Please model this.
Amino acid sequence: MKVELVRAPKFGAILRKHNGALVLGETPVLPGHEANDPLAILLTNFLLWESTPKLAEEALGRLSRLVVDANELRVMLEREVIETIGDKYPFVEERAARLRATLNDVFRRQHRTSLDHLRNLSRKDQRAYLDGLADIPPFVAGRTAVVAFENPSPIIDDSMVELLVQQDAVDPTATTPDVAAWIAKHHKIEEYLKVSGALDAMKREAIGAGGKNTLKFRSAYLARHAGFRAAVEAEKARIEAEKRAAIEAAEREVEERRLAEIAREEQRIREKKEAEEARVRQRIEREAARVAAIAQREADRIAREEAKRAAEAARIKAAEDREKAKVAAEAARAKAQAERDAAREKARIAREKELAKKQAEREKLEAKRMKLEAKRKQLEAKREAKRAAERAKAEAKRAREAEKKLKAQRLLAEAKAKKDAAQKAQLAKQLAAKKAAEKKAAEKKALAKKAAEKKAASQKSAKSKNSKQASKKVSKQAPKQISKNTTRSTAKSNVTSKKSANKTANKTANKSANKSAKQSAPNASKKKSTAKVNAKASKKPRRGKRK
Model:
């Protein structure tokens, strides 16, 4: 069942009994302020609240002796305000606390202690601003609106409400703001002053003309509402505690999410850094291995060249020694057999011409055979390069198919595929790099093989030309009276030198062929086939020379 806070019939009877408009009279203000200053009127109304005009004038007199304006009251301590107003003033502690809170609220809103801005606002906004000030009583807000801005408002305090409760016109649980709100709701604006005048007359009649018992009625009001206020404050405290708990829980949740996000981001950055470091280490290891392999190959090449130069120097020295010994022997034999060889000079010359003709034919056939052999090796190198390119193309095709398969698997299982895709992509890159390196190595080996073959062929042709020139020079320098035995020994020595030159060329060709076969053998089958071809190529010239 709903309880009416104000009993309208009895309230109306009280108004009819004390019928008459409110007589406000002159409102004194603090010296230093104008008579119509809203802030000075607010200060006077604070002193009139739950007091009498006589006590208010005395308090204003004490304030005028210590302060210049209301702003000094705002900055003063509460204890100083109490001492300034007077320790025996009614409800002085509560009055001082409320006054300081209201003045500070005005300063916080306007950044100055003034209410002049309210003159330009509407009546509704003026009343809302005054009612919204911190700790301002309804009596002070209403009387300030009426006196300063001529804005009709209900003027009621706790003593009036207590008198209405005693006359059973208001429910005991009703508060002063509740009664003020009821009056504003159930009465017209034009009736506010009449209602306030009747309530003021009722209060003056109750407390007496001499101002006695000014504290009794409000003390009874406060005592009755103490329990109500405690319950209300407890409920407010509970609601505030729940709000704070909800806010703290939300803040904790947000902080936990933020920390989790930070942890995930740190983990991702750490994993990315570790992966980058691993890639850098692998790259460094590969580069070190490549540099070491290049250095080893260079050292092997230098060693082979040194050995080759040493062998060539030894061979040249041995040939020179043999030539010197041969020349000495020939000279001795030539001196002893000069007379015997004179008769056979014509026959020797004829045979020598025939031998020279045969030798020229053999050299021509040998040059043709070497040219064909070089062409065959070049074709073999081209076929080998083509096969290597086809293998690289097939490997690239398989790599692309594997990458397509990985993409399809990544679409089916995205969570797992991230890690697998990275690994397989890395493997594909390594495989492609390896195949490219193999292809490059194969091309380099083919070029080295071709260069070695060309070098061997050039060395062989140069040696054959040198031997031919040497034989011609010996034949020209020999005297015409050389015997037939000397001619035969010279021919034999020329054949021997040519055979030694051919053997040296064959050895060089075999070494270069073996070297190219070892360098261009990526698998066992290719190595065997290349070795067989080189063996056949190296055996053919020797069989022809023996014939």
